[in-house]
Amino acid sequence: MPKAELHLHIEGTLEPSLAFALAERNGVVLPFATEEELRAAYSFTDLQSFLDLYYALMAVLRTEDDFADLADAYLARARRQGVRHAEIFFDPQAHTARGVPVGTVVDGLTRALDAAPRRHGITTRLIMCFLRDEGPEAALATFESARPYLDRIAAVGLDSAEVGHPPAAFREVYRRAREAGLKCVAHAGEEGPPAYVWEALDVLGVDRVDHGVRSMEDPELVARLAADQVPLTVCPLSNLRLRVVDRLADHPLPAMLEAGLLVTVNSDDPAYFGGYVDDNFTAVRDALGLDAETLRTLARNSFRASFLDEETRARYLAEVDAHRD
Ligand SMILES: Nc1ncnc2[nH]cnc12
Ligand SMILES: [Zn+2]
């Protein structure tokens, strides 16, 4: 099924094999002797336990080539999963903190993204995320340091440790982003309460909410999201691995669809969570008993919720309608 992926951290596509290859290339010593040892650490109790490993492993990403190789490897895999369009997050602060300039990151990623239509048959957008646990001043400094690259960036986002870091503090950086013509998204309602989703909508003015699954605890919020058809980028295998849900069979995805929300299915950090986007489609189909029409709705939603121009969006939607299993 043709689909768009709208919630994908490029750093979360760093597979153990590439991590070890880049460690070797850059002379970085990892605190794991083998790929098996590293994989054994992929047992998470919550978001923070994942983030600790996610940031640690980024030590191997140092040069423009590293970022280009990382993105190209993701795009090759994504195409095999039916992805025709990808809107890709990156975390500049996770790299500048280690002395890697934002320009190195953007140049490497855009080298792979620019080649993607002809190399992989995938169109892309780039979304620059701020690390909410680093605070609003650091986000502002990051935004200003990225100004020379904004013509290659479609949107800003907000990620990292959610609880205790509500969206409202980031009002000014989102105002500047919108003023610069960028779209706005934010992680909210993953581990954080519905109040954070309200703030993302009303204070930051986001065009999409990333995750948003805890919105289901607040009927008024559900009504608002449905009325405005605010897209939610849901990541089922991520929610399972980070213990947002105990079992995939308990996932609120069917209730979200039932409530008329514009829901999409995505992979978040596929190298860590046991599956790329089509694996997420298959997992929810099997665990939640979703039928073929519902899966097609999810694929249609992914293009409807994208930042594509209308003409390209219509072309992809026609591909979904023409698709036969
Ligand atoms: N699921 C997630 N939530 C918040 N920040 C993240 N960074 C990478 N993956 C994330
Ligand atoms: Zn995410």
From TrEMBL:
GO terms for molecular function: hydrolase activity. This is Adenine deaminase. It is an enzyme of class 3 (hydrolase). It comes from Streptomyces pactum. Keywords: Hydrolase, Metal-binding, Nucleotide metabolism, Zinc. It holds the Pfam family A_deaminase. Its cofactor is Zn(2+). SUPFAM superfamilies: Metallo-dependent hydrolases (SSF51556). The record marks 211 as: Important for catalytic activity. Binds 1 zinc ion per subunit. Substrate binds at residue 269.
